[in-house]
Design brief:
This protein is of the alpha/beta class. It is built from twelve helices and 15 strands. The chain folds into two domains: 171 residues, 3-Layer(aba) Sandwich (Peroxisomal Thiolase, Chain A, domain 1); 149 residues, 3-Layer(aba) Sandwich (Peroxisomal Thiolase, Chain A, domain 1), CATH 3.40.47.10. A hairpin with a 3-residue loop joins β13 and β14. It starts with a strand and ends in a 12-residue tail after the last strand. The structure holds oxa(dethia)-CoA (UT7). The site of oxa(dethia)-CoA (UT7) has 22 residues, from α2, α6, α8 and β13.
Length: 356
């Protein structure tokens, strides 16, 4: 009998602090009109000083577990996809598992930048399908605000913080991953990079002074590559599922730039009602972007059992990923599960101290 990995729980967390485009215009030479027209972003969430990547993850994960009704002690594996871990060492996943009370779970972090959640979903699915594990938590999380140069207008306006989580459970029922494609091209290394803090450029006074621990990006180069690769990854995932664009009920793309999403929509003739977008509220949250968009698509009645969802992401590396899943869970479980909600801290519209 085939074992499938079904998504039985889902959750997200966005820090309560809202930073608007007008807030950013007080920090750098930018304005709301430029940011909205070039990116679609209106505001983003910024983690408070005392919030950690583990805390964001745990908030999203607790909701996912509550929706599924699973005791954390039953978890076999916690995968955390992030490029902004709590520490270079140890792995954030291990801290998340401890905090959740996942006493017998294994844990590892996965670094594939903005594509990390889809790499995690493919990995988690493989662990379940192989029969090795039955309950796997996959989290995409970032606190990018701590890795931004707040004097560089070409990057600081783009990113935000957040977390999204799904629980994969073994089942002999049909559904779950129908096809996927993972991609990498190290030729893009210089295009999106945090140049220091690794073994090539260990931290020093000079690297700190030169702000080399923050994200540097060749925006227009990345834009061109992303626009092409998002389409290619979408097609590759569909081929792997034996499906075409017309077979998809909902598209959940990485929320990096609304123009990139529109360009892929145009390429394939995908209507707006099949394309979930929440970039205006959160900006680019890297590995958290796809799961946060998935959770909000479910919360906004875009998804019902039997629907086919195509998720596509692109990010630093370069990396990219596409996955087609057949949705099986009752979306209203999120409302019924005790303690569960789509966790959105009450928005606080003041300039983030953490970011200045
Ligand atoms: O998630 C990982 C993948 N990342 C992405 O997919 C990001 C892909 N890239 C992009 O989304 C876009 O390239 C950006 C949004 C980053 C930039 O948009 P663009 O249309 O490619 O603008 P540009 O970089 O070509 O810059 C155009 C102009 C420049 O001025 P000049 O040289 O024409 O005078 C920039 O200096 O816009 C200027 N500019 C800004 N102006 C106001 C750059 N950033 C800003 C800003 N506010 N924040």
């Amino acid at each position: 009998m085939t074992t499938n990995a079904l998504i039985t729980g889902w959750g997200m967390y966005a820090p309560s602090h809202v930073m608007t485009n007008d807030d950013l215009a007080k920090l750098v030479d930018t304005n709301d009109e430029w940011i909205v027209t070039r990116t679609g972003i209106r505001e983003r969430r910024i983690a408070a000083d005392d919030e950690t990547t583990t805390m964001l993850s745990v908030n999203a994960a607790r909701d996912a577990l509550a929706v599924a009704g699973l005791d954390p002690a039953e978890l076999d594996l916690v995968i955390v996809a992030t490029c902004t871990p709590d520490y270079p060492l140890p792995a954030t996943s291990v801290l998340v598992a401890s905090e959740l009370g996942a006493t017998r779970a294994a844990g590892f972090d996965l670094q594939a930048a903005c594509s990390g959640f889809l790499y995690g979903l493919a990995s988690g699915t493989s662990f379940v399908r192989s029969g090795m594990y039955r309950n796997v938590l996959v989290i995409g999380v970032e606190i990018l605000s701590r890795f931004l140069d707040w004097s560089d207008r070409s990057t600081c306006v783009l990113f935000g913080d957040g977390a999204g989580a799904v629980l994969l459970q073994a089942s002999d029922q049909p559904g779950g991953m129908l096809g996927f494609d993972l991609f990498s091209d190290g030729g893009g290394c210089e295009a999106i990079i945090v140049p220091a803090g690794g073994s090539i450029n260990p931290a020093s006074h000079a690297t700190v002074d030169a702000r080399q621990h923050t994200i540097k990006m060749l925006g227009s180069e990345v834009y061109k590559y992303a626009t092409r690769q998002m389409g290619e990854s979408a097609l590759a995932a569909l081929r792997s599922a034996g499906m075409t664009v017309d077979d998809v009920d909902q598209f959940v793309f990485h929320q990096a730039n609304l123009r990139i999403i529109h360009s892929v929509q145009k390429q394939f003739g995908i209507p707006d009602e099949k394309t979930f977008v929440n970039i205006e509220k959160y900006g680019n949250t890297s590995a958290a972007s796809v799961p946060m968009a998935l959770v909000e698509a479910i919360a906004s009645d875009r998804v019902k059992p039997g629907d086919r969802i195509l998720m596509v992401a692109f990010g630093a590396g370069y990396t990219a990923g596409g996955a087609v899943i057949e949705w099986t869970a009752d979306p209203s479980r999120a409302l019924l599960a005790p303690g569960s909600q789509t966790r959105l801290g009450e928005p606080q519209r003041t300039l983030a101290d953490a970011a200045v």
